[in-house]
Amino acid sequence: MIRVLCVLLILLQSLVSFSQRNVKRDFVFPDKIKLDKSVYQLKQNKADSIKYCSNDTVLDLLVDPLHHIDNVGFRFVVRELDMNYLKKKHQTDSVQDAVNTLLQYVKNDSIRDMVYYLKKYIETRKTEVALRKVKKQMELEKVLSYQPELLKPEELDTDDSWKAHALEELFEYVENDPVHQWIREISRDSVLLGVKNYQNDSIKFWINNGKQDFKRFWLKKNRRDSIGIWVQNTKDRSVRILVDDDVYQQSVQKSKMRGTRVKLEEKISSDQYSLAKLSKYKRYSQKWKLGATIGLSFNQGHVSDSWAGGGESSIATIFTTTGFVNYNYGNHSWENKLDVKYGLLKSGDNGFRKNEDRIEFNTKYGQKAVKKWYYSALFNLKTQAVRGYVYPNNAERILKSSFFAPAYIIASVGMDYKPKKDFSILLSPIAAKYTIVRDTSLIDQTVFGIDEDKKVKKEVGSYVNVFHKTKFWGDLILENKLTLYSNYTMKPKNVDVNWELTLLMPINQYISTKLSTHLISDDDTGSKVQFKENLEVGISYRF
């Protein structure tokens, strides 16, 4: 009797537990699922109407939402989790929400299909190729429609006029589809490559744009010298650069640069590295800089009658050379520059005459005081190399100048303001100026403000030296030099002015055009303003 009672209790407990369950574990869907009416639609012939039926009909096969999972055991696990973590009303649980999110991802086969499609799109880009082919076909259809007399290809020799409109509709749909545009954008490489030359001309393109086309570009140097190149985007997300044929390059010898080599990594084993220990290194900076420029040019010049050095307007040839040696280390700077010009002219039946003759040497030492200000000392020397004459009408030439006759020397101390490399203003409250005529027997020294019984004139005053150099419109260079001097002891309000303005217009690396003007106002040489202008076209070489 007791055994029978125990068996009945076990059976009763099993029935109660079974009745409390809402779903069957071996079934795909919960019992309370509400299916759409389309599930129960009959598959009848085309003439019959679609009917809603019950148990005695043949239903469409139900699609298992986990059919894309090949592992049967994992399918069972997903169903178990789906039943146990079924969200109930008024129940919040972060873990439950997280599990449900993951279950939705596993059951959503469309996400997986989209990822596979995106991966295939990036690797093969068949859609882009197909769009280009369809577009080409549409253009061909349009040309043939406007010119029916043209012979059509054999494959187009059928009455399929509707296909042109259909292809256009298909192309517009895919091309303007926001999903396709998003896939096209993210499939590109994340790097937008840009190439820029000296003239700031540039081209930009995506490295992975689905095309292997070429882009034309010009590499330009400082003096408008250029080399044509072709930039190609390749399949393997790289860039190929091809140089034009028949281009010959000459290597330029570079000066040896000293420096310190910093070790960044240490090798532990054959395939393992570690960062090297950082230690102190001696920093090296280039102290001395030197260079020179040699030029030969042809020019047209105009010289006013009041020009102190003599000469006349002409067509001439001018030889120029400029050299500099600069030292810069720490708070100390020392700038040295030498300018030499010599030109000859031939006007009419006259012989060769001097049109340009100048030797100028500048040296300036500076020690940094604060920020952009320097304590500075300057020495300037100006003279000419050969004799210069004045040619009166129907009269013999008159000697006007020679080497160190005259010569101008200025020595000054003051403060130099240098906000940048190509701009400086030297303010000197104390400056000594010397005017020297070496040979007074042949040259009249009084023309240069020197007394008749002397060869040297000494002055003490203030001195201002302004230098500015700027580049604009790519290669054009404008250079300004202005010096002002005031004599404390004699007419301090009459300021001596020496202003040089030069515009350099390079044509290429070796040929350039230069327009220069020179204005002088000095009471010692007369009250008139002296002015000279030169337009030069010539060749130059820089060391």
Q: Describe it for me?
A:
The structure is a single chain. This protein has 543 residues and is an alpha+beta fold. The protein contains 7 helices and 21 strands. The strands form 5 sheets. It has a 12-stranded antiparallel beta barrel. A 3-stranded antiparallel sheet has the order 3-4-5, with no helix packed on it. Strands 1-2 form a two-stranded antiparallel ribbon. Strand 18 and strand 19 form a beta hairpin. Helix 5 runs antiparallel to helix 6. About 9% of the residues have low confidence.
Can you describe this structure in just a few lines?
Helices cover 20% and strands 39% of the residues.
* Distance separating the two termini: 122 Å
H/E order of the elements?
Answer: HHHHHHHEEEEEEEEEEEEEEEEEEEEE
Instruction: Point out poorly predicted stretches.
Output: 20-35, 37-60, 250-257
Main β-sheet, in a few words? 12 strands, antiparallel, barrel
Q: Structural class of the secondary structure composition? A: alpha+beta
The percent of residues in helical segments reads 10-25%
DSSP strand tally: 21
Cross-sheet strand order for the largest sheet = 8-9-10-11-12-15-16-17-18-19-20-21
**Count of discrete alpha- or pi-helical segments spanning 4 or more residues:** 7
Average pLDDT number: 76
The percentage of residues in β strands lies in 35-45%
Rough shape? elongated
